[in-house]
Amino acid sequence: MKLNRRNLLIATSLGAWLCASAAQAQTQELRVGLIPSEDAQAMIRASQQVMDQLAAKTGMKVTPFVATDYNGVIEAMRAGRLDIAYLGPFSYALASDVAGAEAFAVAVTRKTGKSSYHSMVIARKDKGPHSVAQMKGRTFAFVDPSSTSGHLFPKAGLAAEGFDTDKGFSRVIFSGSHDASIMAVANHKVDAAAVADRIFDSAVSKGLVKADDFQVLWRSQPIPESPMAWRKNLDSATKQKVAAAMADIKGLPWGDQGMLDGFAPTNDQAYDVVRQTAKILKLDLGKMK
């Protein structure tokens, strides 16, 4: 009897040690999701220096992941295959609702000193259209159904100006990325498109397009910048380590946002304006996935 009890105690202790070891092993790798605002390889290259600094400051292996679409990142987080993710404001609102995501940091760019950006509708100057009204019967590109500046805000903004995006266009496509939408307009594949202003500026600075070839038909009010979010059930020690590391990362390029002036703290409530916009469009976040 004593032997069995002793064995039971050893087995229990061993089991607890194994569980603790497994939990510790899980936190040695930080899996980071990135929404595909550009193609996957471009996203990884553009964020690599920040990923390297995150690894150096946390002492963890950092593995970036870019899905083929926005919902791929949300699904990966919901399945527990990602620990933190860089999400668009609307994809974050979706992820917070269905995948237990929680915003904790937002990039502040050195160029603007702000943590906000704008959506805009662009068209070529030579072919038009030259106004929102003239888009009727034309072809149009949104980015992704879960894109804030590439779908949600322009759809609501155009509706406020009396343009029905469900019936007003002759054809609508979802290009998959802001870069793809910009190039679709540049190459006459569509007549107009909704994109983020900073991604358009980035395409111009890279020499992909010329700003003088385009005109802006509509521009949104400021949108809260894309947040970094972690799984709510990520262990608190890892959360603290990651938050401290992100706050200390400055002077590095961060995707299409350009040079970082740091990551500022944020919270879930900062994205209520996105939820309110979804409500205007009668979008049920719980049914978007």
The major β-sheet equals: 6 strands, mixed
Which descriptor suits the 3D outline?
A: globular
Structural classification: alpha/beta
Distance between the termini: 55 Å
SSE ordering: HEHEHEHEEEEHEHEHEEEHEH
- Rg (C-alpha, Å): 22 Å
The proportion of strand residues reads 15-25%
Regions with pLDDT < 50 over 5+ consecutive residues? 5-26
Helices, by number, come to: 9
Strand arrangement within the widest β-sheet reads: 2-1-3-12-4-13
The residue-averaged pLDDT reads 86
- Estimate the helix proportion, in percent: 25-40%
**DSSP E strands, number:** 13
Summarize the structure in words:
By secondary structure, this protein is of the alpha/beta class. Helices cover 40% and strands 22% of the residues. It contains nine helices and 13 strands. It has a six-stranded mixed sheet with strand order 2-1-3-12-4-13, sandwiched between helices. Helix 3 (70-78) packs parallel to helix 4 and helix 5 (148-160) crosses helix 9 (272-280). The N and C termini lie far apart (55 Å). Mean pLDDT is 86; it is low at 5-26.
